[in-house]
């Protein structure tokens, strides 16, 4: 058949086998790139970088915080000053005790010294001066209020209140507790972690971060 003078050239069709091979190559190359980045920089570094670019949704209202061996879900939260928070802290482990404590500047002496150490894991305890209501205690090993202003919903005996150390509810396997508070005017990044078993849990990776935004 004769081609008209102004008719565009007809490109030959690529066989389906070659198209599939090209797609496979591109997908495979992308997967190798991601795997290489994870190997080179580490998964947590990539997650932190992504959060830095895209941010994290602001949490308010009821948030479930789960403790496993040896990590939290979620391990990153964003709060806003003045928001009402209801943290339902649950220990999902069948064998280990876990706690939730939050502050800044972990005491590195825990990882170097021997003998008796100060019970304060943080140089700054986030909960100092914060009004907190505790309720629905179940399988509580102990609770240390430190300098928080705590209201107990129910008999205090159920919370097994102790002294010494930072604000921290410690739960037996399967335990849970409800922590209600208004986010205080303490913007910035705060760390949280579990310092049970001579801080092995924390060193193993049981930690997280909270970004607090201004009101």
UniProtKB/TrEMBL annotation:
InterPro entries: Cupredoxin, TAT_signal, TAT_signal_bac_arc. PROSITE patterns: TAT. This is Tat (Twin-arginine translocation) pathway signal sequence. Gene3D superfamilies: Cupredoxins - blue copper proteins (2.60.40.420). It comes from the Bacteria.
